[in-house]
Amino acid sequence: xxxxxxxxxxxxxxxxxxxxxxxxxxxxxxxxxxxxxxxxxxxxxxxxxxxxxxxxxxxxxxxxxxxxxxxxxxxxxxxxxxxxxxxxxxxxxxxxxxxxxxxxxxxxxxxxxxxxxxxxxxxxxxxxxxxxxxxxxxxxxxxxxxxxxxxxxxxxxxxxxxxxxxxxxxxxxxxxxxxxxxxxxxxxxxxxxxxxxxxxxxxxxxxxxxxxxxxxxxxxxxxxxxxxxxxxxxxxxxxxxxxxxxx
Length: 247
Description:
Elements: E1 7-10, E2 18-22, H1 42-45, H2 55-66, E3 69-73, E4 95-96, E5 99-100, H3 109-132, E6 138-145, E7 159-162, H4 170-178, E8 185-187, H5 199-203, E9 210-217, H6 224-244
Parallel strand pairs: 2-3, 2-6, 6-9, 7-8
Antiparallel strand pairs: 1-3, 4-5, 7-9
Helix pairs in contact: 2-6, 4-6
């Protein structure tokens, strides 16, 4: 599949130390994977199970405002999840938030290896090259979360900041966000920190790089205007946090 791009890079020559990453930017299924379909309805492919709605727009806008680089995936998390270690059992999901992923039910070791070679490894190779392009790279991972999982209570947080013990950026960023009384801010909510081998672990923690992971509730970043507004809110907070952090 020579014309397929597993990721997109923007602002590779921008001068700042920021690298903004979006692991779940797209709900695309490459034609080399099951003919371009995972056998589930279009409505499911438009849901959070397939990608992080709104996160790509925030990523692009935030990278521009920070004068930094951006990397965005170009494959659905249902094809293979780049925010998992290679040996993680949830790397290729067969059931997700009540939906059976038909195209993954019979995906054996050979098919998973094919998807790693097509999507997963090229994405992480490009991510690693961008991160190592300068010794002081600071990584911001942008994700979104659904307001409610099937059968679960509504999630109250507007934004969550995730970290796995390295609070150099996350701590000051949390302080800035919590100064706004209109926001419900979660720390390691709605998810708990990081998983071994995930993207931040692989590209930031393993190298001692400054990092934070931002989770935005997807109903708050549905439009381009909302995405730009959140990026404009976060950019000065991130700049201030980095200025305060100790390398």
